[in-house]
Structures are given as structure tokens and as C-alpha cells.
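User: Okay, second chain of the day. Same drill as before: sequence in, C-alpha cells out.
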Amino acid sequence: MADTEDAATAHAWAALGGRARLVRRVSFQEAGPVLPSRLPVRELARACVGVSSLAAAELLALRNRLPVPAVRVDEAAVATAFVSERRLRIDGRAPTSFAPLSGFWRTTDGWVRTHANYPHHRARLLGALGIADTGGDREPVGVLAKELASRQAREVQETVYAAGGLAVAVASAPAAAGPALVETPQVTEGGHRSPAPASLPAQGVRVLDLTRVIAGPVATRSLALLGADVLRVDTPRIPEDPDAHADTGPGKRSTLLDLTSTGDRHVFEDLLGRADVVVTGYRPGALDRHGLSPEVLLAKRPGLIVAQLCAWGWSGPWAGRRGFDSLVQAGTGIASIEAGPDGRPGALPAQALDHGTGYLLGAAVLRALSDRLTTGGGRHLRLSLAGTASWLLHDIRPAQETAGTYDPGHWLTETGSPYGLLRHALPPVHYTGAPANWDRAPTRWGTDAPSWA
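Assistant: Same drill. C-alpha cells below.
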């Protein structure tokens, strides 16, 4: 058990605005060489879970007027949770992580990384490059490889981006320091809440979850574990991978609303009018056309906490671009650092930018809830995968190697669900008295009523 203050945890806690002395409440149960990488992924992962756990402990203590309970971060639990989508089994079946057209491809001057897991991204990628979509993958893989091998990486990147697809030239060196880890651009007056005793930190907190894929859903999955009433709202126009929802849906409910429909918009506004937290996972400005900018949301509901997540940061030429963990790894130089002996770009041992940012986002919401109880006011919070990547590349130092044998099986459990029998990772967020598992299995995506519990 490591009892000395962890530098990465202290850095993240300071970025969240937490009191420095509380970091001493966090200890670590080491598990040997977990999440092995050239970069300090283990240190990032345990710090992100550590501050999420500490923020939960702080809020619980504040609500009950008690001392902050101790936090213990088990590195084995963290390592298992950071690859939860890979550990998941549904009736014994392993989900598919990446589609055949998602990956690294040679170009005339280097490499490009594509992302085509969703049908619309696949169609845009192939269309941008003039490749016929036959509906299968075997033929397009060969044709795509040949086409990309005849082009320059940045040409591919810009051509595919212009068509609404996803491709990023692999950076050959680490990017310069990027966005801040956590930004709080706006604090509003009003909305002061008196602490109400609770058995869980976020008990009674209503969270409107407007996120997709991994990072945002990981954040709201943690909030659900800690007692929040989390309602995920998606458009019926964009499909979701059911395996992804089976992984990130525990503890939540899920509904579909078309915000261009008058009836659905009325329902959404009613939900918004009683929400405590809104979490979004779209690129900057994407929700503004629906009247859902942070400024509008905070004006409508004083005291609201608006927590935003994006891929590339909130300013600069890439701010408005779509992105995923694998693409940010490619664009920031991480993929080159993790390259194999043959020079082929590599990847971190987990989608650590997604999972890490998810736990940080959850921690930011919990800290904002604590601040609202003490000083009042709403909060606007911003995080990004690029900010987490910059932290990993420039600010985290490797910790001393530890001995031990990592057994992920100890941190997996089985839960019945509408999807079938799930074998899934247990939550790594832990403080004295924390729940050991979610109180409900994931429901099927989009099948719940659009109402608060």
C-alpha cells in the first residue's frame, strides 16, 4: 500500500479546484506492472480514479457534515475498468472493438489513422476517397489500403474531414502542450442548495446525459454508481452500438428524443427544467443550434452545472473537429511514441484518454456539486481528450515500478440484463463505504421513458 502523496493525483486535484490537504486521504493498492506502456498510463489511470473517488468522498462528507472518508485506489481495479469494453462478455461473446476500416494505414509520406466504427463514418470515409461501398469489409479493406498508399497523410486527413469522415495524419513527434486539463470558464450566481444528508454522494442529483461512445458515458456511469438519477438522451437519427451501451449503461436509463420535433422538444425542456447537471459530449458549438449552449442553459436554470467534453479542445483550428481517443492518440504523437520495432504506429494499452477524461469529468461534476453547496452558483466545466493527452505527454512522471501479479478476474462480476448475461468490470471508484457495484443493469438503449425517476 503506497501512502505517500501521488504527484499526478495532486496535479489533477488542483486542476479541479480541490483543497490540497485532501490529497493525503488517497492511498494506493499496487498491483505490479499494469497498463504497461512507454508513457505513464498507469499513473494517469490511478490519478483519474483517485480524484473521482476523492471528489465523491468530499461531497458525501459535506452533505452529512462528517470528516472526509479515506480513499483507496486499487490499481488492479483501475486497470480492469480502463479496458472495460474489452473485458465485457455478453452471454460469453466478446464485442468487436474496432471495425475493419478503422486503423493505421500507410501513405506516401507516413501514416494515417481512420475511424469507421459507425456506419455513417464508414460511408463518409469511403465516399471521400471515391471508393464504392459494397456493404462488406473484405473488398474495401484492400481497396482502401491501395488508395491511401498513393496519397499523402495530410491530404487524406483534410479530404476525409471535408466529407464529414474521420482520418488523422499520425504525428511523428509529441505535440506541444495543449489545452488545460480542466477549464471553468463561467460561474453564475444563484441556485444555492443546502446540504441534505445522504447515503451516497450524488443521491437525488438529476443528470441529463447528452454523451456518446466512451468518455462521457464513463463519467455519467460513475455518477450513477454514486446515486445520481442519470437519464441519457439520444437522437433517434444516429444509431448506437448496443455492446458499447451494455458496457457504459449500468445504473442509468436511456431514452430517445428528436429535438427538431415540437413534442419531443417540449418533453426535453421539462427534463431540463428539473435537472441539476447537464453533461454533453459533442464538439464545440454542435448543440448551439438547438439552443443548448452553456450560456443559454445557465440563463434558463441558475445553479445548473454544465459539464462539456470534446476531442480536440475548445479553441484553435481543430476545436470544431470530430474525434475519438484513437484519433487524438494519432494526432498528438502518442501513436508514434508507442510504435513497434517495424515503425508501425502503436496505441496505449487502453483507450486511456477516453477513460481518464471520463473519470476526470465525473470528478469535476462532483466537485462542482460540492462548491455549489458551499458557495452557490452554477458552473460551466470543460474538458477534452486533447487536454488529457497533453497532461500524459508533458506533466506526469513515471512512478516506481512495483512487484505483484495482476489478476483481472477478481475485478469482474456477472449481471443479468436485457442484453443477456454480462460479465463486466466492477467500478474502481472507492472510498470507505462506497457501493461495490451499480444498483441496476443497463436497460436497452433508447427504451426508457423520458422522465425523471
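Residues 7-93+177-313+350-425 form a domain with the Rossmann fold fold (CATH 3.40.50.10540).

User: Thanks, on to the next one.
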